[in-house]
Write a sequence for this structure.
C-alpha cells in the first residue's frame, strides 16, 4: 500500500489526556514542537508554539451537565475530562470565559468507500479505508486531535452508499481499532449501513424489516458491534434513494425500516440517523424538491425516540444557495438533524476558495438550531498532505466544528479565528482583505454559478462546471439541467407557485409560504428557484431580468479577480509553499468563473433575442 504520510508533529496530548482522567486538579506542562514545513498538515493547530507553558486544569462537578468549560486566566475548569480537553484548545486559541456545546451530536459524515475512494472527495483517498485494510494510526490520531480541538464528537466512517461488507466481522474489527484511537479524544464512531445487508451477505432470505429473521439478524449484529465497541454511536442510513435498498422494496415504510434498526440499537443506547434525501422512489415524477416532505410528513410521530431524521439544509442537493428544506417545518414530532456538506461538491470542489460559514448561518436564520438534535457535516478530508486539498477548505472543516459547538458565532468571528490560527498573522499586512475575501467568497460563487436562484445546471455526474443545455434521455429527468432552468423564449426559472406551478411553496411555514409564492415578494436570491420569470421583468436594480443575470455573472467573475489581487498582496506574509498552492487554485477558480459566465450567458442569451 502506498500512502502519503503527513509530517505529523507529535505533542504530548495523549499522555495529557490520560492524566486528566485520573486527577481533579492538575498542572500540566505541554511541550510544543514547530511544524517542520508550512505544508498545511498542522491545520489550525500550528500556533500552539510558544503558548504559555503551564495550564491549570480543574474538575468541578457543580458545572452544568455537559462537556463545557470555563476559562479564567490560565485555569480551565470543566465538569468532565472532555470539557477540559475542549477547554484546553479554547485556551490555546485565546478564549476566556464560559462556553458549552450547543448540539449534543456534532458528527462528521465520511463518504469513504471500503476500497479507499471517496464519493465527492477532492483531497485524495480515505484516511480509514483501502484494499489492504491498513491505516496509519498516527494519522488517525492527528485527525482525532483536530476534531477534538473544535469540539466534533462523532464520525461516520463510511459512505452512505454503503457496502454490505461494512458489517462483516473483519471490517467491524477494523472499526474497533479506529474507535480505540478516537475514544481518548472524545469521538464516537458510527457506521453507514446498507439496508439490504443481511440479504446481500446471504445470511437471510429477505431484508424485509418486519420479517422476524431480519429483525433478529440486526439485533445480533448490534450486539456483536457493541461487544467490541461499547460506545458505538449508531447507524446512518440512506434507504430507497438513488438505487439503495430500503423498506419500500418490501412494501414497508421508512418508519418500519428505521424502527427496526432503532430497536436493535436501543439496548445499547445507539441511535439511527435516517436520511430524508429521497426522490424518484414513491413520488416519482413529482417536483424533486417536494418529495422528501411527500414521503415523510405522514410518518411524523411514528418513529422511535432513538431515530433522528437527517436532512440536507436545502430541499434539492447542496447547491451554492438553496432556500431551506421545508421538511424542517413539517416534522413536528420527529427528532431532526441537519446535514451540511463541507466537501464542496457543487461549490468548485477542490479548486475554489469558498468559505461556507455564511451559507450555514443563512440556513440557521431560517431553521432555528433549537429545532435540531444534532448536526452532521459531509467531510472534506482525505490523504492529501494538507488534509482538504485546498488550504482554505480547511476553514470549512473548522467552521463546521465551531458552528456545531456554537451556532451563534458569526462567520466573521470564525474566519478571523481560523486566519489567526492558520497563518502567521503578525506578518500579514492585509489581514482585513483576507478576511473580506473569505466572507465574500460564497456570494461570489453564487453569482458565477447560480445567480438569482438558477440551480442545478452543473455538468453531469461530477458536478464541476456548467452544462445548461444538459439533457440525457436515458437519465432521470431530475438529473438534467434543462429540468431546472426551464428557459424558453418567454423567460426562465422553475415555477413552484401554488397557482401555476408545482406548489412547492406550500410546504413552507408562513410567512415564507406566501413570500416565496408571490413574484412581487419573493426574495431575488430565490427568484428563479420559485418562479418562471419573463426576460423583460424588472428586478429591484431597475435592470431587466436578463441584464441582471449578466450583471451578476460579471460580478462573480470580478470578485474572483479581486481575490487574486488580495492574495498577491499577501505574498510577503505567507510561506511560499502555501502561498503558491493557493495562488494556483485562485487562478483556476478565475478560469472556471469565466467559463460559467461565458457558457451560461451564451446559452441563455440564445433564448432572449
Ligand atoms: C453519497 C448527491 C450526490 C451523491 C450523494 C447523494 C447523497 O446525489 O451527488 O454523490 O451520494 O447526493 O447525498 O446521498
Amino acid at each position: 500500500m502506498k500512502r502519503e504520510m503527513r509530517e505529523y508533529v507529535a505533542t504530548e496530548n495523549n499522555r495529557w489526556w490520560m492524566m486528566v482522567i485520573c486527577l481533579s486538579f492538575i498542572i500540566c506542562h505541554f511541550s510544543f514542537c514547530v511544524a517542520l514545513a508550512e505544508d498545511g498538515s498542522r491545520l489550525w493547530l500550528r500556533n500552539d508554539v510558544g503558548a504559555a507553558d503551564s495550564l491549570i486544569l480543574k474538575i468541578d462537578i457543580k458545572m452544568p451537565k455537559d462537556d463545557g468549560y470555563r476559562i479564567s486566566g490560565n485555569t480551565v475548569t470543566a465538569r468532565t475530562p472532555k470539557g477540559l480537553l475542549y477547554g484546553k484548545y479554547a485556551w490555546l486559541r485565546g478564549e476566556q470565559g464560559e462556553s458549552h456545546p450547543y448540539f449534543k451530536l456534532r458528527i462528521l459524515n465520511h463518504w469513504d468507500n471500503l476500497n479507499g475512494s471517496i464519493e465527492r472527495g477532492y483531497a485524495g483517498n480515505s484516511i480509514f479505508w483501502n484494499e489492504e485494510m491498513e491505516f496509519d494510526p498516527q494519522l488517525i490520531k492527528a485527525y482525532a486531535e483536530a476534531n477534538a480541538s473544535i469540539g466534533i464528537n462523532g464520525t461516520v466512517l463510511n459512505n452512505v452508499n454503503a457496502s454490505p461488507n461494512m458489517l462483516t466481522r473483519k471490517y467491524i474489527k477494523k472499526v474497533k481499532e479506529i474507535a480505540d484511537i478516537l475514544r481518548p479524544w472524545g469521538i464516537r464512531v458510527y457506521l453507514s449501513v446498507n439496508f439490504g445487508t443481511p440479504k446481500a451477505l446471504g445470511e437471510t432470505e429477505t431484508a424485509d424489516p418486519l420479517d422476524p429473521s431480519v429483525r433478529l439478524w440486526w439485533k445480533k449484529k448490534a450486539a456483536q458491534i457493541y461487544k467490541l465497541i461499547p460506545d458505538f454511536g449508531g447507524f446512518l442510513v440512506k434507504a430507497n434513494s438513488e438505487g439503495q435498498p430500503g423498506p419500500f422494496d418490501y412494501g414497508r415504510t421508512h418508519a418500519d425500516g428505521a424502527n427496526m434498526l432503532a430497536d436493535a440499537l436501543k439496548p445499547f443506547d445507539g441511535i439511527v440517523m435516517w436520511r430524508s434525501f429521497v426522490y424518484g422512489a414513491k413520488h416519482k415524477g413529482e417536483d424533486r424538491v417536494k418529495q422528501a416532505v411527500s414521503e415523510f410528513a405522514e410518518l411524523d410521530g411514528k418513529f422511535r425516540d432513538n431515530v433522528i431524521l437527517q436532512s440536507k439544509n436545502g430541499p434539492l442537493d447542496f447547491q451554492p444557495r438553496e432556500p431551506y428544506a421545508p421538511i424542517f417545518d413539517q416534522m413536528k414530532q420527529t427528532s431532526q438533524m441537519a446535514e451540511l456538506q463541507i466537501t464542496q461538491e457543487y461549490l468548485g470542489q477542490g479548486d475554489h476558495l469558498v468559505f461556507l460559514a455564511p451559507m450555514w448561518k443563512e440556513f440557521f436564520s431560517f431553521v432555528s438550531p433549537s429545532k435540531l438534535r444534532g448536526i452532521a457535516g459531509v467531510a472534506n478530508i482525505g490523504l492529501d498532505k494538507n488534509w482538504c486539498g485546498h488550504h482554505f477548505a480547511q476553514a470549512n472543516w473548522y467552521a463546521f466544528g465551531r458552528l456545531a459547538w456554537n451556532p451563534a458565532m458569526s462567520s466573521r468571528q470564525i474566519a478571523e479565528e481560523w486566519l489567526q490560527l492558520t497563518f502567521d498573522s503578525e506578518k500579514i499586512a492585509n489581514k482585513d482583505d483576507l478576511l473580506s475575501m473569505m466572507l465574500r467568497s460564497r456570494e461570489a460563487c453564487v453569482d458565477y454559478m447560480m445567480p438569482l436562484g438558477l440551480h442545478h445546471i452543473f455538468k453531469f455526474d461530477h458536478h464541476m462546471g456548467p452544462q445548461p443545455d444538459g439533457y440525457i434521455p436515458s437519465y432521470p429527468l431530475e438529473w438534467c439541467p434543462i429540468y431546472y432552468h426551464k428557459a424558453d423564449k418567454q423567460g426562465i426559472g422553475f415555477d413552484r407557485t401554488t397557482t401555476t406551478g408545482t406548489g412547492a411553496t406550500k410546504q413552507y411555514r408562513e410567512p415564507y409560504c406566501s413570500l416565496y409564492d408571490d413574484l412581487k415578494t419573493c426574495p431575488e436570491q430565490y427568484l428563479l428557484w420559485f418562479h418562471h420569470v419573463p426576460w423583460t421583468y424588472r428586478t429591484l436594480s431597475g435592470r431587466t431580468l436578463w441584464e441582471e443575470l449578466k450583471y451578476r455573472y460579471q460580478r462573480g467573475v470580478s470578485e474572483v479577480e479581486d481575490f487574486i489581487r488580495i492574495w498577491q498582496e499577501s505574498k510577503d506574509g505567507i510561506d511560499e509553499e502555501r502561498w503558491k498552492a493557493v495562488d494556483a487554485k485562485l487562478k483556476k477558480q478565475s478560469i472556471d468563473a469565466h467559463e460559467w459566465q461565458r457558457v451560461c450567458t451564451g446559452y441563455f442569451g440564445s433564448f432572449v433575442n
Notes: Residues 576-608 form the longest helix (33 residues). The radius of gyration is 24 Å. The mean pLDDT is 93. The first strand starts at residue 25 and ends at 28.
